[in-house]
Amino acid sequence: MGNGIDQALSADWPYPRLVAHRIGGRLAPENTLAGFDACIRFGYRMIEFDAKLSSDNQVFLLHDDNLNRTTNGRGPAAQHTWQQLASLDAGAWFDVRFKDERLPTLAQVAARCEREAIAANIEIKPCPGRDEITGRLVALAAKDLWRARKPLLSSFSFDALKAARDAVPSLPCGMLFDALPRDWLRIVRELACASLHANHRHLTQQNVRAMRDAGLRVLAYTVNDPARARELAKWGVDMICTDRLDMIGEDVVS
Ligand code: G3P
Ligand code: MG
């Protein structure tokens, strides 16, 4: 077992190296409970998923702002009540085998995480204009729903992550970037982030070292090539977020 794995499961950082993107990666409809079966099949012990609010402030899972791509609904998610969203099919678009899969609530996901001892990275993905309220309500809900292991919160939205941190300072936060801004260190310090989550295409051995030297944990997304996953792990990247649960296992990153 590599040094990085020992470190990854230490008391201050109780998260494994491998993280299943959108719960089931490419093996199940994204952001649905069906993805848990894929995680368990391939030995994944941590998931990432996208959380947002319905018009009546239910926290539920969906990646896009609108319903068109991954459900049989249409239009902006933020204009639908939870009762309307709960009746949608969120599985058939992916494969007929998953017909009748529903959009899950954060509470349903938390229950599965606790039952299966799977850690969570909750990506706060606000609908347009709803950054602060989404950050706050996700953090408050997460604090009450997870008992065994604190979920790691992250967001591309500075305002959402700040609201989450202000609401529940005890939950670890990670700022999400695509291209790294020049002032990434100022931003993560302002939010007291425990981790930095970066598009792996923008990571180099040098900037990973700078992040680690700044005391940050590093998550790289979305790494679907085993050789690249191995390289990032060698550089000291703490978490590899991947769709390829079937191709990237502990043997690749340890
Ligand atoms: O949190 C990592 C990754 O999920 C960010 O990108 O678009 O898949 O949510 P996206
Ligand atoms: Mg995400």
Automatic annotation (TrEMBL):
SUPFAM superfamilies given in the database record: PLC-like phosphodiesterases (SSF51695)
InterPro entries assigned to the protein according to its UniProt record, in alphabetical order: GP_PDE_dom, PLC-like_Pdiesterase_TIM-brl
Top-level EC class as recorded in UniProt: hydrolase
Enzyme Commission no: 3.1.4.46
GO BP terms: lipid metabolic process
Top-level taxon of origin: Bacteria
Entry keywords, A to Z: Hydrolase
GO MF, one example: glycerophosphodiester phosphodiesterase activity
Domain GP-PDE: 16-252
UniProt-recorded name of the protein: Glycerophosphodiester phosphodiesterase, cytosolic
Organism per entry: Paraburkholderia piptadeniae
